[in-house]
Amino acid sequence: MSANHVECFFLVLFLSFANRDTQGLCIEGEKKALLSFKQDLIDPSNKLSSWVAEKDCCEWDGIVCDSITGHVMELHLGSTTQDPLSSLSGKINPSLLGLKHLSYLNLSNSCFVGIQVPSFLGSLVSLRYLELTEAGFSGLIPPQLGNLSNLAHLGIGDNIGLYAKNLSWISGLHSLEYLDMSHVNLSEASDWLSAMNKLTSLSELHLSYCGLKRIYPLSYVNFTSLSVLDISSNNFHSFLPIWVSNLSSLVSLDLSQSYFEGPFPNFSWSTTSLRSLDVSDNNLNSTIPSSLYGLPNLENLNLRMNNFRGVISSAIENLTFIVTLDLAYNALEGKLPAGMRNLCNMEQISLAGNKLVSEAFDSLSGLHF
């Protein structure tokens, strides 16, 4: 290439960037898609007041563009609280499909009352983050969301009236790390556990208040990346599942208020990272299993409102990191182990509603009961 050709090449390159600077980063087709999206929204707090055709859409509130290509990458339109007087409502225009590079969409705490989650969201295949929590949606969750194979975060909980008849579609979310479906009606989704077990990258799973009725044994646990599991406030009416003790990365486990019954098994826990365990308000009726005292990093233990019986083992002094301990409203009896006074990190303990002798409390002065 001659020197003149090189100079011409760099001149054209310079002029193209100079032209981009004068017009702004925004790509015209994506600006039009966003303006069409805005037209179908009701915006009582003027959150989208900066969305005007005369401005670079990459400078609009809630928009994040790629600093080089100008493509719209993120839409931050969620609110901190759901308030009909200030939250977005209306309809979700399929013009969003014009945002081919969109990787992040947050519409949480909106008021899309009476409408379904749009099935076309399943065509936004670049999405890695989709947050629709407490946005007012109802109806059937579209199985097309299972096409979002790049999705790492899906928040769809706290939408009263939202339901799924099965969760077979969720196995397509190979990259999913976070899933919140709390308060979604899954009472007919008998495949919920087998579907979740296919998500090998899943780190957090929130399924509280889902109307779940069955919790089956698992011959093999695939979702061993789980660090947070919350299946509280369901209707299992079964024994505690053994497979929870095989979750080797588990940090927080909430099984409260789910009608678990029978003895608490003396699990061989695969995790040493568990910091929070809540099995309160069930019908567990055994002694406190010794394996619980072998969880070295446990900080919060809630066994409240069951039917645990017998004495509290002296092995409880092994819980050296315990901060809150709730054993209230069981059938525990006898004296507290003397070693409990050495649990120097403990800030709060609840023992009411048991058959413990009164002098048992003398050594725990200074704690909040």
Automatic annotation (TrEMBL):
Keywords: Glycoprotein, Leucine-rich repeat, Membrane, Receptor, Repeat, Signal, Transmembrane, Transmembrane helix
Record protein name field: LRR domain containing protein
Subcellular location: Membrane
Signal peptide: 1-24
Gene Ontology CC: one annotated term: membrane
Transmembrane found in the keyword field: yes
Superkingdom as given in the UniProt entry: Eukaryota
Domain Leucine-rich repeat-containing N-terminal plant-type span(s) in chain numbering: 29-66
InterPro entries in the record: Leu-rich_rpt, LRR_dom_sf, LRR_N_plant-typ, RLP23-like
Pfam family, one: LRR_8
Membrane topology of this protein: Single-pass type I membrane protein
